[in-house]
């Protein structure tokens, strides 16, 4: 199977046609022209200071509440290393981002998966867990267009989660890289913006709005927390990459990021719609919630479809998918995550048709 023939619903990344390559090239030139000393020097562990200031203004916080990192996974790692010890209880969504699961498992956390509903994390289920005596150090939540399920946490549940965190004294880790990639509906306020009791640490990334190759993410939290993590960051790498952060800063202050977001929104909104239509046409037995934004759609199949068999059968037919079992502590044997971000509209229906063939093959 050649690269041209393969249709991949596996990777949560934008296709090249919706990356503003020319804008990034121009931003790179401006970055070197405007601040050659800052771009080429080590910098500080808190990141490129002009970008740090821009992020702080975006979120309505002080600059000393922001740490800019090499991608959001590094932001996650810094926070986990700072807050979580082996044996600590940590709440995660079920399903959730596979790398978050792996990283927390490696740290020896006691993980508790809470179901995701069409309006986000099941807060009633979480309350029962808390009332049973479990005292988590942290609850990891992807509130907007969740990876992998595509769901969005409702405003009511955001407020309820904030109340639970204050009552039971745990930190909400609001992992929010998809918020700006909204196709439909109204934007909801972040839990960071609603937080009056200092229970939220927020993370995001420029991977989904600029491009993955820049590897720029960030954390927003209390100034004390950020200062402590910055000390660890200094020991680890002196500073993150100043070149990429300076390019992202120029891309942001020029307004190119707003145009980039509009391009990505429009393209991915169409791709999500076409994917949902194709699933209804070719796989009417599949269950899914059409997302209002983001990169992913979660598909559940009848119990006679095992994804351990389906994924290789799809690969034989030139379709790459990711098994649902990768995103949960246990289960997910009848589910797939489909990333529509990198598949152009003209290939989506063919990809779903091939997937339907694979489903028929494993059922027979």
UniProtKB/TrEMBL annotation:
Cofactor(s) it depends on: pyridoxal 5'-phosphate
Domain Aminotransferase class I/classII large: 7-355
UniProtKB keywords: Aminotransferase, DNA-binding, Pyridoxal phosphate, Transferase
GO biological process assignments: alpha-amino acid metabolic process
Domain of life of the organism encoding this protein: Bacteria
Cross-referenced InterPro entries: Aminotransferase_I/II_large, Class-I_PLP-dep_aminotransf, PyrdxlP-dep_Trfase, PyrdxlP-dep_Trfase_major, PyrdxlP-dep_Trfase_small
SUPFAM superfamilies registered for this protein in UniProt: PLP-dependent transferases
Pfam families associated with the record: Aminotran_1_2
Matching CDD domains: AAT_like (cd00609)
GO molecular function: DNA binding; pyridoxal phosphate binding; transaminase activity
Name of the protein: DNA-binding transcriptional MocR family regulator
